[in-house]
Amino acid sequence: MVRSTGALHHPRVLIALINIWRVHYNVFDWRPIPFPNEEPYTHKVMVNYLQTAGLFVIVTTGSDTVHVSTDFEHFEPIISQSVMKDAVAPLPDRAALLLVGSDGLYTFEAECPVPGD
After folding, report:
1. Less Cβ crowding at N or C end of the chain, within 10 Å?
2. Which pLDDT band, with edges at 50, 70 and 90, does 18 fall under?
3. How far apart are CA 50 and CA 88, in angstroms?
4. pLDDT grade, residue 24 (50/70/90)?
């Protein structure tokens, strides 16, 4: 007959180990995750979907880069002439988005003609 000598499969030993682990690592306690910066992120990120073009347009306030994506996995950066302040709304008559820049209004066209064509 084989007798147990208090091995790890005994319920009291298991509970004791779990309690030591729980107390040591404070797994069940609420821990706020610190923000990586000293101050909160002050920029606003706006995601608009241009349904007629099938494009996601991502605008970050205070940035001169607008990102576009067709599948929301791969993003193409587009550098603008001005720093963007806000995205107002998609335009109803064409695949475009009205943006507010630091020096005026801009339209982001899904099918923008290349200068010189």
Report:
1. N
2. low
3. 13
4. low
For residue 3, pLDDT beyond 70: no
Token code pair at residue 95: 């695949």
Q: Answer whether residue 65 is part of any domain.
A: yes
From the list 54, 62, 56, the residue with the least C-alpha distance to 80 is 62
Closest CA to 90 of 35, 36, 50, 32: 50
| Residues whose CB falls within 8 Å of the CB of residue 58, separated by 6 or more in sequence, listed in order | 45, 46, 47, 48, 66, 67, 68, 69, 75
Nearest to 59 by CA among 67, 50, 71: 67
25: in domain: no
* Residue 87 is assigned to a structural domain of this protein: yes
Span 51-92, pLDDT tens digits: 888 889 888 888 888 889 998 888 899 888 889 888 888 888
- The tokens for 55 are 């494009």
